[in-house]
Specification:
The complex is a heterodimer of chains A (about 110) and B (about 110). Chain A has no helices and 11 strands. Chain A has strands at about 5, 10-15, 20-25, 30-40, 45-50, 55-60, 60-65, 70-75, 85-95, 100, 105-110. The model of chain A has no long low-confidence stretch (mean pLDDT about 90). With about 110 residues, chain B is mainly β. The N and C termini of chain B lie far apart (about 35 Å). The chains are: A mainly beta (about 110), B mainly beta (about 110). At the A-B interface, strand 4, strand 5 and strand 9 of A face strand 5 and strand 10 of B.
């Protein structure tokens, strides 16, 4: 059974800092890995999707890496801004059409 | 132009009532999901349909019944609502043959009083 862990559960940083969020998974036979952002009271917005054959994906100030052999993915946020404050979740599909296992999220607060 | 739309956005109802939440996607995806997010913000899968066929049915009370009239719609009907059913319910979809990721709806906040 796939287990997904996100550390830390909460993170508070001053504006402008670069930061890394971690996502670990126990079963490395994954199809892809997806990072989401969730604002309070809102739905999930997809940030980055990394296929199992890829090592990283970049979008603006965000960079996500994937190391299947060690069961880890990281989300790097450069030059953090108060607008980045949200909960960040990673999701790992167990099979192509099957369900994803979600981490419990890292709640990020960027202070002005 | 909303890709995955859920209705209603908010639902407040009394215990014992029966209610439905509707979900529609216009992305041409072949698989749709219902997820439940509880007060602790943990996101758990409930059901998944692929081309109108049920493929995932997690351990949820049989008071919850999904219905997929076609590939673009997946509705969730809940009978005899209980206080513990209060949560945010998210619909999601994806296209499984192209390795795309999930697209989520904005959620339905259900409050049972």
């Amino acid at each position: 059974k796939q287990e997904v862990t996100q550390i830390p559960a909460a993170l508070s940083v001053p504006e402008g800092e670069n930061l890394v969020l971690n996502c670990s998974f126990t079963d490395s036979a994954i199809y892809n890995l997806q990072w989401f952002r969730q604002d309070p009271g809102k739905g999930l917005t997809s940030l980055l999707l990394i296929q199992s054959s890829q090592r990283e994906q970049t979008s603006g100030r965000l960079n996500a890496s994937l190391d299947k052999s060690s069961g880890r993915s990281t989300l790097y946020i450069a030059a953090s801004q108060p607008g980045d404050s949200a909960t960040y979740l990673c999701a790992v599909p167990n099979t192509n059409a099957g369900k994803s296992t979600f981490g419990d999220g890292t709640t990020l607060t960027v202070k002005p | 132009d909303t890709a995955v739309s859920q209705t209603p956005k908010y639902l407040v109802t009394q215990m014992g009532n029966d209610k439905s939440i509707k979900c529609e996607q216009n992305l041409g995806h072949d698989t749709m999901y219902w997820y439940k997010q509880d007060s602790k913000k943990f996101l758990k899968i409930m059901f998944s349909y692929n081309n109108k066929e049920l493929i995932i049915n997690e351990t949820v009370p049989n008071r919850f019944s999904p219905k997929s009239p076609d590939k673009a719609h997946l509705n969730l009907h809940i009978n005899s609502l209980e206080l513990g059913d209060s949560a945010v319910y998210f619909c999601a979809s994806r296209r499984t043959d192209s390795g795309t990721g999930y697209t989520f709806g904005s959620g339905t906040r259900l409050t049972v009083v």
